């Protein structure tokens, strides 16, 4: 079978090659999946570069999320059937014609959810949903996030709207305002405007901003901090700028702001299964109903993985780059 494999860490478009490997055999509690479509996430690219939270043993097949058809059942797996369409995330080796993963992680997909949506259903959308709960946001609360054109940020805004939570979405380009409005996302403000902070305060109408989600780092993190209300929460989610967080000691001290880091993989390790089930149930319903839209930025054949990861590394995409087996 064909796989997208790297024998060293480095720029994904340089180190990934299409390599033939034997068909994997599922062990007890596992399933083998015939990959239909897989998404390219930032963490996939960082893993290939060797700079993510874990380093795979080399050579390694890349990719961590996909939609596919159950092809074989390991010992003890009775709740799934061969031929069933499922989504899986948190796996290793998704960029291959076949991959193996734990049966407990498989999410059966209704027909209403397309392959394009199913291939990116978990990592980013679930992060968005869990971020809202992580921040303790309830109906009527106000929050703010930067990098609002990002995959997680878009979904966070959509889920928040469905829950009655007000999120102020910061973008860097004036044309991004209409782009997000076109997706049904409200409260979008461009930081290119000199008076953007005044616009944020006016939009909130005096209500305290209870939480801020920062995906950029650097000085932009401090801009968010300056807008949080008393006893608010600052969540560090990403570091798009590549710069360390710059946070005002005065705002932290006098507003009594709490700063937390967010990594979904860690949270999932300690979350009860019934809670995870509730999250997925809500997410499936939102995507199937159209309340949450998952965009793609182009679909590439597995054979063209070098072009696919190069496209995924470029800014300004409307959605995830996807790989088709």
Task: Walk me through what this model shows.
The chain has 325 residues and is an alpha/beta fold. It folds into two domains: 2-121 and 294-324, Medium-chain alcohol dehydrogenases, catalytic domain (Quinone Oxidoreductase, Chain A, domain 1); 126-265, 3-Layer(aba) Sandwich (Rossmann fold), CATH 3.40.50.720. The chain has twelve helices and 16 strands. It has helices at residues 12-15, 42-49, 115-118, 123-134, 151-163, 174-181, 196-204, 218-225, 249-255, 264-270, 273-289, 305-312; strands spanning 2-6, 16-20, 30-39, 60-61, 65-73, 85-89, 98-102, 107-108, 142-145, 166-171, 188-190, 209-214, 233-236, 258-261, 296-301, 320-324. Strands 3, 5, 6, 7, 8, 15 and 16 form a seven-stranded mixed sheet that branches. Helix 4 (123-134) packs across helix 5. The longest helix has 17 residues, at 273-289. It starts with a strand and ends with a strand. The model has no long low-confidence stretch (mean pLDDT 95).
């Amino acid at each position: 079978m064909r796989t997208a494999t790297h024998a060293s860490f480095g720029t994904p478009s340089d180190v990934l090659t299409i390599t033939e490997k034997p068909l994997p055999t599922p062990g007890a509690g596992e399933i083998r999946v015939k990959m239909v479509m897989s998404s390219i996430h930032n963490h996939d690219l960082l893993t290939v570069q060797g700079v993510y939270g874990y380093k795979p043993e080399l050579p390694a097949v890349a990719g961590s999320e996909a939609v596919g058809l159950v092809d074989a059942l390991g010992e003890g797996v009775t709740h799934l059937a061969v031929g069933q369409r499922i989504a899986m995330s948190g796996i290793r080796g998704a960029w291959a014609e076949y991959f193996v993963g734990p049966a407990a992680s498989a999410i059966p997909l209704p027909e209403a959810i397309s392959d394009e949506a199913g291939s990116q259903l978990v990592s980013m959308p679930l992060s968005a949903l869990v971020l809202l709960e992580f921040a303790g946001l309830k109906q009527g609360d106000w929050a703010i996030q930067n990098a609002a054109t990002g995959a997680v940020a878009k979904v966070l805004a959509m889920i928040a709207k469905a829950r009655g939570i007000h999120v102020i979405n910061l973008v860097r380009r004036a044309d991004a305002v209409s782009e997000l409005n076109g997706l049904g996302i409200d409260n979008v403000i461009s930081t290119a405007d000199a008076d953007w902070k005044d616009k944020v305060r006016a939009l909130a109408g005096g209500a305290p901003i209870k939480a801020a989600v920062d995906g950029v780092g650097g000085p932009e993190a401090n801009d968010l901090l300056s807008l949080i209300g008393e006893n608010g929460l600052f969540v560090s989610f990403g570091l798009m700028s590549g710069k360390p967080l710059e946070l005002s000691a005065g705002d932290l001290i006098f507003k009594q702001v709490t700063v937390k880091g967010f990594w979904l993989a860690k949270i999932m390790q300690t979350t009860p299964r019934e809670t995870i089930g509730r999250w997925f149930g809500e997410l499936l319903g939102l995507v199937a109903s159209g309340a949450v839209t998952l965009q793609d930025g182009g679909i590439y054949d597995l054979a063209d993985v070098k072009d696919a990861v190069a496209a995924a590394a470029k800014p300004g995409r409307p959605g995830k780059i996807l790989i088709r087996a």
